[in-house]
């Protein structure tokens, strides 16, 4: 996602900053600190409404009651993470399996397509209130919403990847006498893996948002509820602290997906390729 | 004249396509499948095999649609409000996203120092900001526009940036050796080169703008299609809420189609038939309108 743009591949002709890492980190920290200081004083001197833009020091201070003294965040955090994880797992598995089934037959795919297009165009989260009416205000509705949000990206990516399988490769598999199952597991799926994983990453990126929306519209527990309550009480420093917590959770989930991605499609990056070939060589040498 | 001949050629093409037996058979199968689904569903609803509170029959949904569009007509205003919020948010968010991305592409320093904030913004679910935006901007339209803009920002930013950074080295070398100015390099090389990716980002952004507007309406609003849907769901008028849901799908489809058309017009060289049309037009302009157009294979 972000590597595409954020690397240091400069446009040719522009200067390159090759100062050491610690120097750059120091500059980053200095910029952040000065931004925070400016914000702090702008609010402290009354140029901005502290009800709307709480001082950074107050935001950091409100981490303490949230996490330590009153410790109210933990149960909400637990509920949200359980929803995200369960919905993500169910939604992605369902999406990939159904897409593989649909991708195997061109006829099924052709007649399914209009429905998929309509579902794709519909804002998925909008089904939220309907899910609530169907499943009640409990965990079931939230799970269903996150599952639905996580379903589509893997489904569509898997379907696209399978349908665009390399015909020459399929020809080769056929002429080598591979069974349908072998063709699927040894040629089609590995070939489709990078795209499938891209879909899975998209699903993970939207899972947290889906869970939060589900909590906004229903539910009495979860980070979304906490945030909503704090903002409604105009406890903005608490709301910002919760938002920052969500940023951190989002980052952890993102890093987790990145690590899984590097393991699953190891042939797409040098380190993974080296790691796996070293392992295979060891195993091979042990055998001979 | 050449205009008339292309017109009739197009009509002939459409006619042959419509009467193509494969096309007819497929269209018929599509219709049959659709009719079968609706029929079974209706039958199950009529015979009491489906709970009205969970899955109302298609006829009930159709009736709700009819009521909302032609009897009370209440849907139009809500429809307009949400559309306005989504489109306004889309323009604001993508202008900021593209602007910052251009700055980040041109300056390595800026790119480096904006990167951590961009990453933080990316991993924060934009939807989470809803309660804060509502506290800031109130319950009216502006909080919805702000949320839509926030959600739109990132896909446009990333796609514009990576599109601009993907400038071909050899071509930019060529531009330099031909003595192109920096502005010329930017407008004639980098922007056209990045245009397909920018548009891919804009297409994603358009659908997410709608999601942003609707979610913000769920959180708190007095008008808009999201709140309409929620009201019906709370009244357990499921047929009407499914009808609203279908309207949302329609709106999403409409916005996506608009983006698709804009994409085909602007990034015409990525679509074969648009490329043909464009080169035909340029050839006509080049050789003067008097020259008849040669028949196309």
Oligomer: heterodimer
Please name the two chains that share the biggest interface, counting residues whose Cβ lies under 8 Å from a Cβ on the partner chain: A-B, 65 and 69 residues
Percent strand of chain A: under 5%
In total, the number of domains of chain A comes to 1
Radius of gyration of chain B: 25 Å
Percent of residues in β-strands of chain B:
under 5%
- What general outline of chain B do the C-alpha atoms trace? flat
Q: How many strands appear in the DSSP assignment of chain A?
A: 0
- CATH structural architecture of chain A: Orthogonal Bundle
Topology as H/E string of chain A?
HHHHHHHHHHHHH
Measure the end-to-end span of chain A: 42 Å
Number of domains of chain B: 2
Helix content of chain B: over 70%
- Just give the CATH class of chain A: Mainly Alpha
Note the main sheet of chain B: none
Describe the fold and architecture.
The complex is a heterodimer of chains A (about 290) and B (about 300). In chain A, about 80% of the residues lie in helices and about 0% in strands. With about 290 residues, chain A is mainly α. Chain A has one domain: MetI-like fold (Orthogonal Bundle). The two termini of chain A are about 40 Å apart. Chain B is an all-alpha fold and about 300 residues long. Chain B has 2 domains: about 50 residues; about 200 residues, MetI-like fold (Orthogonal Bundle). Chain B is built from 12 helices and no strands. In chain B, helix 4 packs across helix 10 and helix 6 packs across helix 7. At the A-B interface, helix 1, helix 2, helix 6, helix 7 and helix 10 of A face helix 2, helix 4, helix 5, helix 6 and helix 7 of B.
């Amino acid at each position: 996602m972000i590597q595409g743009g954020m690397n240091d591949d400069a446009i040719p002709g522009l200067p390159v900053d090759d100062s050491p890492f610690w120097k750059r980190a120091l500059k980053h920290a200095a910029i952040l600190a000065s931004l925070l200081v400016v914000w702090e004083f702008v609010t402290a001197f009354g140029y901005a409404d502290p009800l709307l833009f709480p001082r950074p020091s107050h935001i950091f201070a409100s981490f303490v009651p949230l996490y330590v003294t009153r410790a109210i965040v933990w149960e909400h955090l637990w509920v949200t993470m359980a929803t995200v994880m369960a919905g993500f797992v169910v939604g992605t598995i369902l999406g990939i399996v159904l897409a593989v089934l649909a991708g195997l037959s061109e006829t099924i795919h052709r007649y399914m397509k209009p429905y998929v297009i309509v579902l794709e165009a519909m804002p998925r989260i909008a089904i939220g209130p309907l899910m609530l009416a169907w499943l009640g205000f409990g965990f079931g509705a939230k799970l269903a919403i996150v599952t639905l949000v996580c379903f589509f990206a893997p489904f569509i990516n898997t379907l696209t990847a399978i349908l665009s399988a390399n015909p020459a490769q399929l020809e080769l598999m056929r002429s080598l006498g591979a069974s349908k199952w072998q063709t699927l597991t040894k040629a089609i799926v590995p070939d489709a893996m990078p795209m499938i994983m891209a879909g899975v990453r998209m699903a993970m990126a939207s899972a947290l948002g889906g869970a939060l929306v589900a909590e906004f519209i229903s539910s009495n527990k979860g980070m979304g509820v906490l945030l909503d309550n704090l903002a409604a009480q105009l406890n903005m420093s608490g709301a910002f602290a919760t938002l920052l917590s969500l940023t951190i959770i989002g980052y952890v989930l993102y890093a987790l997906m990145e690590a899984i991605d590097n393991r699953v499609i190891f042939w797409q990056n040098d380190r993974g390729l080296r790691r796996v070939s070293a392992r295979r060589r060891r195993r091979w040498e042990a055998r001979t | 004249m050449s205009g008339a001949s292309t017109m009739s050629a197009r009509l002939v093409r459409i006619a042959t396509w419509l009467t193509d037996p494969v096309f007819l058979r497929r269209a018929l199968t599509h219709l049959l499948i659709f009719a079968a689904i609706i029929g079974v569903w209706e039958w199950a609803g009529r015979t009491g095999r489906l709970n009205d509170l969970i899955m109302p029959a298609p006829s009930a949904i159709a009736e709700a649609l009819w009521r909302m569009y032609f009897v009370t007509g209440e849907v139009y205003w809500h429809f307009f409000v949400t559309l306005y919020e989504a489109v306004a948010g889309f323009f604001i968010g993508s202008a900021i996203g593209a602007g910052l991305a251009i700055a980040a592409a041109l300056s390595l320093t800026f790119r480096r120092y904006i990167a951590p904030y961009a990453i933080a913004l990316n991993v924060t679910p934009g939807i989470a900001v809803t309660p804060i935006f509502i506290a800031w901007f109130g319950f009216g339209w502006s909080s919805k526009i702000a949320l839509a803009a926030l959600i739109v920002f990132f896909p446009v930013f990333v796609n514009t940036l990576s599109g601009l950074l993907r400038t071909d080295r050899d071509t930019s070398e060529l531009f330099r050796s031909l003595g192109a100015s920096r502005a010329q390099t930017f407008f004639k090389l980098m922007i056209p080169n990045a245009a397909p990716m920018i548009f891919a980002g804009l297409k994603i952004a358009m659908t997410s703008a709608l999601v942003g507007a609707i979610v913000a309406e769920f959180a708190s609003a007095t008008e808009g299609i999201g709140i309409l849907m929620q009201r019906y769901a709370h009244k357990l008028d499921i047929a009407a809420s499914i009808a609203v849901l279908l309207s949302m799908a329609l709106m999403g489809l409409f916005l996506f189609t608009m983006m698709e058309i804009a994409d085909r017009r602007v990034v015409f060289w990525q679509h074969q038939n648009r490329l043909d049309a464009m080169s035909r037009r340029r050839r006509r302009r080049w050789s003067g309108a008097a020259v008849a157009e040669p028949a196309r294979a």
